[in-house]
UniProtKB/TrEMBL annotation:
<protein>
    <submittedName>
        <fullName>Extracellular solute-binding protein</fullName>
    </submittedName>
</protein>
<dbReference type="InterPro" id="IPR006059">
    <property type="entry name" value="SBP"/>
</dbReference>
<keyword id="KW-0732">Signal</keyword>
<dbReference type="Pfam" id="PF01547">
    <property type="entry name" value="SBP_bac_1"/>
</dbReference>
<feature type="signal peptide">
    <location>
        <begin position="1"/>
        <end position="32"/>
    </location>
</feature>
<dbReference type="InterPro" id="IPR050490">
    <property type="entry name" value="Bact_solute-bd_prot1"/>
</dbReference>
Length: 438
C-alpha cells in the first residue's frame, strides 16, 4: 500500500518543524513539568498529528477537555507530532519504553497492519464489543481498523478505532445550474444529461487534474459503477483474481475516453494538480467537481460569490473512501485503561457532532442532529454511501508505488493512449505483486 500517496497524505497539513527519531524518543514533557506518574493510572500520554485549528484537532481538543473533566486526577501529556514523524518512526517508538498510551496512526496494510503483525499494537477487539464501537462504525468503514495475522486489512481483530470517514462525492455550482437551466442530477442518466447540456452551452462541465490523484479517482469510480463487493475484495484484498480487461475496468477506460472525446473532460487538464482542479471549481470555470470530502473545509472558506452543494455521486453505489486514520493503543502503553476511556469519548455523540459541525465526516453522528446545512449535506452523502456498503478504498492501495502507475496510466489515456495499453499498464505491477505476495 503506497501510504504517502493516499488522499489522506496528499491533503496532509502543513508540517510542523521536523525532529529526528532521537528527539521523538526523548523523555516526554508537558507544559506543567516532567511526567513522573507513568503506569499508575494518573497520566495519559497522547499523540496526534492534526493541524491546529483544523476540524479534527478541534474535536480532539474537546475530547481532551472532556477527558480532564471526567478524570480530574489524571494529567494529560499531549504532544502534536507530524504525519511524517509518526509514519517514519512508529516502529522504533512503539518498540521502546517511550511509547504513548494512545496515538493517531495511519490506516492500511503497510502501517496499522504492519505494526499489528509485529505485535506492537494492542488487540482492541474485546473493547470494541464492550463499548459497542462496532455498532457505531459500519462494516465498510471498519475494514481499515481490522486486520488478520498477516497484517492485511479486513481481518477479524480490531487494532484501531477510526472516528471519522473520508470519501469521494460530487460538488455542484448551484448558481451555474440555475443560470443554464440544468437539472440537478439524481441518477447517472440525468448526470450525463447535465454534462451534455453544459457542453452545448460552451462549458466544460467536469473539473479534473491528470497529474495528481483526481484523474485516477475518476477512472476507479467509473469501474466501481460496474463492480460489486466481490470485485472490490478481489482487487483490494487479493481474495480472488482480478481481470483488468474485464467489464469493470474496460467500461471505465471506454467511458473516460468517451467523455474526453465529447469534451466533458478537458484533455489539457492532463498536467494539472489537485489544487488546480479545485481552483477550476472555485473560479466557476467548471460547474461540477467530483472529489474527496477533504476539500470541503477549504471550499467553505474560499467560495464567497456563489451557492454550492454536495451530494453522493449519482452514478454508483460505491465510491472511493474508507474509515479515517486510527486511534491505536501501543502494546507497551503504560496506561491502557485511560487510553480506552479517551477513545470512548471521541466516539461520544458530543464529539462526533463537533467533528461534523467543523466540516469533517463523523462515523457515528446522525445527519438529523447536525445544524449546519452544508455539513448536513456532507453527512447525508456519507451516510448514504455507508448504507450501501459503498466505501471501496482507493485505487493505489493494493501495491506499493502504485500511485505513480495510476497517474501515468490516466495521463496516457488523456493523451490519446489506446484502452488496452492503459489497462496493461495498470495490470503489470499489480499482477507482479500478487504473484510474489507471501
Amino acid at each position: 500500500m503506497n501510504i504517502p500517496r493516499t488522499p489522506s497524505a496528499l491533503r496532509r497539513r502543513p508540517l510542523l518543524l521536523a525532529v529526528t527519531a532521537l528527539a521523538l524518543l526523548a523523555p516526554l514533557t508537558a507544559c506543567g513539568g516532567s511526567d513522573t506518574a507513568e503506569g499508575d493510572g494518573k497520566t495519559l500520554r497522547l499523540w496526534h498529528y492534526e493541524q491546529e485549528d483544523g476540524a479534527l484537532s478541534k474535536a480532539w481538543d474537546a475530547a481532551i477537555a472532556e477527558f480532564k473533566r471526567t478524570h480530574p486526577d489524571v494529567k494529560v501529556v499531549f504532544e502534536r507530532k507530524t504525519f511524517e514523524q509518526i509514519q517514519q518512526n512508529a516502529g522504533m517508538i512503539l518498540n521502546s519504553d517511550k511509547a504513548p498510551d494512545v496515538m493517531e496512526y495511519n490506516k492500511g496494510n503497510a502501517t496499522t497492519g504492519q505494526l499489528a503483525k509485529q505485535g506492537l499494537l494492542t488487540d482492541l477487539t474485546p473493547l470494541v464489543k464492550e463499548h459497542g464501537w462496532d455498532r457505531k462504525i459500519s462494516d465498510s468503514a471498519s475494514v481499515t481498523a481490522r486486520y488478520n495475522d498477516k497484517g492485511e486489512m479486513g481481518g477479524d481483530k480490531w487494532y484501531g478505532i477510526p472516528n471519522y470517514g473520508e470519501f469521494v462525492l460530487t460538488y455542484y455550482n448551484d448558481d451555474l445550474f440555475k443560470k443554464y437551466n440544468v437539472d440537478k442530477p439524481t441518477d447517472f442518466k440525468s448526470f450525463e444529461a447535465a454534462l451534455a447540456k453544459f457542453k452545448a452551452a460552451g462549458i466544460t462541465p467536469l473539473a479534473n487534474a491528470g497529474n495528481d490523484h483526481p484523474a485516477g479517482h475518476w477512472l476507479y469510480l467509473l469501474a466501481l459503477s460496474k463492480a460489486n463487493n466481490t470485485w472490490v475484495d478481489n482487487y483490494q484484498r487479493y481474495v480472488g483474481k482480478v481481470d483488468f480487461h474485464g467489464p469493470e475496468m474496460t467500461y471505465a477506460v471506454d467511458k473516460y475516453q468517451e467523455w474526453l472525446d465529447k469534451g466533458y473532460f478537458d484533455k489539457k487538464d492532463v498536467g494539472l494538480k489537485g489544487s488546480d482542479m479545485v481552483e477550476q471549481f472555485v473560479s466557476q470555470k467548471r460547474p461540477i467537481m467530483v472529489g474527496g470530502n477533504w476539500w470541503f473545509g477549504s471550499l467553505t472558506t474560499d467560495i464567497k460569490n456563489f451557492q454550492w452543494s454536495t451530494a453522493a455521486y449519482p452514478g454508483s453505489e460505491r465510491t472511493l473512501g474508507s474509515g479515517g486514520n486510527n486511534w491505536v493503543i501501543p502494546t507497551r502503553a503504560k496506561n491502557k485503561e485511560l487510553a480506552e476511556d479517551f477513545i470512548d469519548i471521541t466516539m461520544s455523540d458530543k464529539i462526533q457532532k463537533l467533528i461534523d459541525e467543523e466540516g469533517n465526516v463523523p462515523l457515528a453522528a446522525k445527519p438529523a442532529d447536525v445544524t449546519n446545512p452544508k455539513s448536513r449535506q456532507l453527512t447525508e452523502a456519507f451516510a448514504q454511501t455507508q448504507e450501501n456498503d459503498g466505501l471501496a478504498f482507493y485505487p493505489d492501495w493494493p501495491v506499493a508505488g502504485y500511485y505513480d502507475t495510476w497517474v501515468a496510466a490516466t495521463q496516457n489515456l488523456m493523451n490519446g493512449g489506446k484502452d488496452d495499453s492503459v489497462l496493461d499498464e495498470l495490470a503489470a505491477p499489480y499482477e507482479k505483486y500478487v504473484a510474489t505476495r507471501p
